[in-house]
Amino acid sequence: MNDSSQAFDIEFRHVVKRYGAVAAVNGLSFKVRRGSFHSFLGSSGCGKTTTLRMIAGFEQPSEGEVLLAGQPMVGVPAYQRPVNMVFQSYALFPHLSVLENIAYGLRYRSSRPGRAEQRRLAEQALEMVRLSGFGERKPHELSGGQQQRVALARALVNQPTVLLLDEPLAALDRKLRKEMQSELLRLQREVGITFVLVTHDQEEALSMSDSISIMQDGLIIQTASPEQLYETPASRYVADFIGESNLFDGTVRRIEGDRVVLQTAQGLELASPSTPSGPPLKASEAGCIAVRPEQISIGAESAPLAREICLRGRVEDRIYLGNLTEYRVRTEPFGIVCVRVPCHGAQDSSAFEHGAPVRVGWDQASGLAMTL
């Protein structure tokens, strides 16, 4: 094992997984840095769960190589891998107590500890997830959040190299999900091991991850930090999947330095910087300019709007989001344009009700040009 491999707990080398003629994963190569919190994010059927199952050893690759802590895992069964998994369903044994559930995996370690040591380690894990004193209860006597913590304690008690999380918060309500996100981050910092999360919830991935891989059709489209994914998406798919974007498709007319001049189907020319994360655009090819809703201003139709691009429209929807108000404005050239403004900003958000005539606008530098 060389020095560079020691910096990564997970590595895929040209991995393919086929089910019959269908390639669920199609040539993945990536590395996950040791001690990081990494997420795989994508819509249903993109290959993220298959990827997780190959890390766990529940599936073997059709082609390519999977390495954990620098060691090849081809042919190594799940129970011999230095990983544990937390499932969406928790998978707790209903007839066992909380402590017995946590200690269950300790019985199958190669160096099996004695009963007293099993209990001590289980109680230690229970304390780690802040459930001291709950050891004698049965799973049905716990809330959903408490059951999730028990599942985490059971996964961590064996001190795995990698903890795999398969949409573990999907069954919880929104408030409890937020609490568990904070709990997962705290645990990851305390234990210092590599966490890998699979989810279709972008907010969940953005709030917890050091790095995120966006998957589509069995491929990784972009891997970056949450900030980079949001601010510099590599393609239209990423811009559309992460957060909300106003997407203006068209044909590239010319390249002016670092700006891409794109003509829309409506005949309007837009010019924005090219995203630094994606492949460069070329003249005459199809492209897209993405503008985030918070980059767009809204004002009364009668008042001038000091922006480079300015469009007239009517408010179709006004959505209160707490700290923000979202307007969906129907414009003549582009259809719906989404705008988000602070509720307590300089603008009077209550001025624009449904049907109100308005102007919306943005500066060219606020957009990013990218491939489709």
UniProtKB/TrEMBL annotation:
Entry superkingdom: Bacteria
Gene Ontology CC, one term: ATP-binding cassette (ABC) transporter complex
Statement: the UniProt record of this protein carries the keyword Cytoplasm: no
Keyword list, A-Z: ATP-binding, Cell membrane, Membrane, Nucleotide-binding, Translocase, Transport
GO molecular function: ABC-type polyamine transporter activity; ATP binding; ATP hydrolysis activity
Domain ABC transporter as annotated: residue spans: 10-242
BP terms from Gene Ontology: putrescine transport
Reactions it catalyzes: ATP + H2O + polyamine-[polyamine-binding protein]Side 1 = ADP + phosphate + polyamineSide 2 + [polyamine-binding protein]Side 1
UniProt-listed Enzyme Commission number(s): 7.6.2.11
InterPro entries to which the protein is assigned, alphabetical: AAA+_ATPase (IPR003593), ABC_SmlMolc_Importer (IPR050093), ABC_transporter-like_ATP-bd (IPR003439), ABC_transporter-like_CS (IPR017871), Mo/tungstate-bd_C_term_dom (IPR008995), P-loop_NTPase (IPR027417), PotA-like (IPR005893), Transp-assoc_OB_typ2 (IPR013611)
Subunit structure: The complex is composed of two ATP-binding proteins (PotA), two transmembrane proteins (PotB and PotC) and a solute-binding protein (PotD).
Function per UniProt: Part of the ABC transporter complex PotABCD involved in spermidine/putrescine import. Responsible for energy coupling to the transport system.
PANTHER family with a match to the protein in the record: SPERMIDINE/PUTRESCINE IMPORT ATP-BINDING PROTEIN POTA, SPERMIDINE_PUTRESCINE IMPORT ATP-BINDING PROTEIN POTA
Assigned protein family: Belongs to the ABC transporter superfamily. Spermidine/putrescine importer (TC 3.A.1.11.1) family.
Protein name listed in UniProt: Spermidine/putrescine import ATP-binding protein PotA
Protein encoded by which gene: potA
